[in-house]
Amino acid sequence: MAKTPSNMVTLGTKAPKFELLNTIDDISYSSQDLFCKNGTVIMFICNHCPFVIHVINEIVSISENYKENISFVAISSNDVSNYPDDSPELMKKLAVNKNFSFPYLYDETQEVAKSFDAACTPDFFLYNNENKLIYRGQMDDSRPGNGIPVTGNDLMGAFDNLIQNKEISNEQKPSIGCNIKWK
Fold it and tell me: Which among 179, 175, 153, 157 is positioned nearest to 167, based on CA atoms?
């Protein structure tokens, strides 16, 4: 299992604009449709990555707890020719089975992942109400097999500070996961 870290994109960077198909309802959404007035987290995930599988239940739980204040968007950018477990049909199946309350978008061309400078799954990017990056990096210190419980503390701490209009520390740890499967 390869361990690829996030690219630590410069804080304050504006969110790239995009339009992608939501595999859950087969409707295309633009970033303008998805970004919320308080804050938005863009999550690069996929179906087969052991790092994502390790945290997916906590992602779903956190999204439910914060959905009044934070918009959640999941994107899969993996090459489905070589990784068929990440196909749009199976993305929809995972989203339904896990009760995603957020869109699960398919980035077939991989241009969206490149525009965000996403590197791994999972990879998290939190934007404020001006669509400026205020957090990028890990959900927490848990990784498959390291014995640390999945809590989401790092990501939730950023959410709480955003909601309470508190400063978010620039000391942020990169996420670690499988590399995005580029074509």
Answer: 157
Could you tell me the pLDDT band of residue 1, with boundaries at 50, 70 and 90?
A: low
Q: How far apart are CA 168 and CA 134, in angstroms?
A: 7
Distance CA 118, CA 120 (A): 6
Model confidence pTM above 0.90 = yes
Burial of 104: CB neighbours in 10 Å, binned 0-12, 13-18, 19+: buried
Q: For 15-29, write each residue's pLDDT tens digit.
A: 999 999 999 999 999
Residue type at position 118: A
SS3 8: coil
Rounded Cα–Cα distance for residues 21 and 170 (Å): 33
For residue 160, CA distances in Å to 62, 74, 128, 154 come to 12, 20, 12, 10
